[in-house]
Amino acid sequence: MENVEIAAVLREVADLLEIKGGNPFKVRAYRNAAQKVASQARPLRRMIEEEEDLTKIPGIGKDMSSYITELVRTGGLERLRELQKDVSPTVTELLKLDGVGAKTAAKLYHELGVDSMDKLRRALESGEVSKLEGLGAKTAEKMRRELEEVTGREERFLLSEADSLVRPLVEHLQDAKALKRLQIAGSFRRRSETVGDIDILAICDDWEPVMDALTSFDSVDRVEQSGETRGTVVLRSGLQVDLRILPEESYGAALHYFTGSKSHNVAVRKMGVERGLKISEYGVFEVPENRNADSSDPQEGKRVAGKDEKSVYKAVGLPWIPPELRESRGELEAAENNDLPDLVRMDDIKGDLQMHSTWSDGEASIEEMARACADMGYEYMAITDHSSWVGVTTGLDEEKLEKQWEELEKVRGKVEDITILSGMEVDILDDGSLDLEDGHLERLDLVVVAIHSNMDMDEDEMTARVVKALSHPSVSILAHPTGRKINQRRPINIDLEQVIDAAVEQEVALECNAMPNRLDLADIHLRRAAEKGALLVVNTDAHRPDHLRYMSYGIDQARRGWLESDDLLNTKSLSKLRKWLKG
Prior knowledge:
Layout: H1 3-20, H2 24-38, H3 44-49, H4 62-74, H5 78-86, H6 102-112, H7 117-126, H8 136-151, E1 157-158, H9 159-174, E2 179-184, H10 186-189, E3 194-195, E4 197-204, H11 207-215, E5 220-226, E6 230-235, E7 240-245, H12 251-259, H13 262-274, E8 277-280, E9 283-286, E10 302-305, H14 309-315, H15 331-336, E11 351-352, H16 366-375, E12 380-383, H17 398-414, E13 419-427, H18 438-443, E14 446-450, H19 459-470, E15 477-478, H20 496-506, E16 509-513, H21 523-531, E17 536-539, H22 551-560, H23 574-582
Parallel strand pairs: 4-7, 11-12, 12-13, 13-14, 14-15, 15-16, 16-17
Antiparallel strand pairs: 1-3, 2-4, 5-6, 6-7, 8-9, 9-10
Helix pairs in contact: 1-2, 1-5, 1-6, 12-14, 19-20, 21-22
């Protein structure tokens, strides 16, 4: 059982316990443990196999350690089974709706017997929900809109979740005898922010050991198909994995085909037809003059390419195109004109300019964060704890900020191989003013501003609010500009074109927040911002040292947004960064 699966079970226990009306301290313990487990870089199953003490993980006590061990060793949890006897397990479906927390779900469940999306729909139609004390017609209407949106939404996994689920499987498959090559394709390879399923392509001398390795993997819930060329399994998490075993001569063509996107592939095939070529997952074939290159036989004609992916593109007169760009958004035209971007790489990053410590809602000290950033090889970092307005955190007011500056000076003396900048994540208030007096804003090295409250404003009000904040002379970065949380919360209502224009005018950097459930800005918005001349920055928003590794997801997103190194603030050297901040 992988960390993401363990965390999901612990969250379900917390949800059911809260809906039941259980001890709030126990609810919080399960939620905190789920968060800790999900962000652990090392698989807990390995720690348990090696009999390591899980209580060494901050926030994991003796009882929680025993629950996690039970989960890993048995695949189930008795505490969860007990709760499911008292509370219908399907009631947790309601929590998928933005704005429906455990307390609201409990009210719906206990007072109306609503324990599923279907029952909620009927209760909304009958008007029962709007009559509940504390909810009302406005809340019921919002639920109705959310219900329609969620019902039509395909169930997809965050890229980070898919990563944690499929990497152990790949390691397992790579130990199979006779395997020669293995690669993940699909939206996973394109580094899409969410993944529906996983396509794995393999070359091997003998298919049986490889297929046996797939079907015997510990996390497999059921086997849908197992044969000489294809196997399909569904993991306990619900993620479907398709393994295709291919001949070596077709591998590149298949990798291109199964990587997608569909629209990209269609366009490449059309270019092939124009050249008398048939392009399929089996290869690139030169079709006889008297035959139609668009005929139904995928292997008709003489094979001219397909062993590797570059040969597929070369056959239609193109250079190889990075998978992150293959979304039919102009990449083929750029390739034809030899104008593909030189995409930013992880090695280009010189520092991380948004993270938190125990001074607000972080889980590590400034020194711990500084040493972790130094271990990343960064030149610089910024501590940007929250201002005091954010109700869910213990934020800093002017007095606490002064004390934090004293600690920053001490840490700078201890950790000398990285430059620590003083910053703050300051709330944008409803009227566009900032949650810190100007005197303190001016003394910070950089000021990160963000929306955390009253997120239901209409578009005009929200846009005016943000644009006004960007006009403040101390502001350096606008964090997670749309406020979205993937699969959890929709973006705020805002005119991004106006925000981008304001950022360009005021020389404020727009953030690509690398937290896997944010990835905000989205790829298309990153590209648009760069096209309009905005400066971007990829930050992790780390709340503990383990979160710093999320920078790679931010880089994936930046690459999908066609960003080059020069488009980003935190690829600059320290001297250039300081010059920009002073300017």
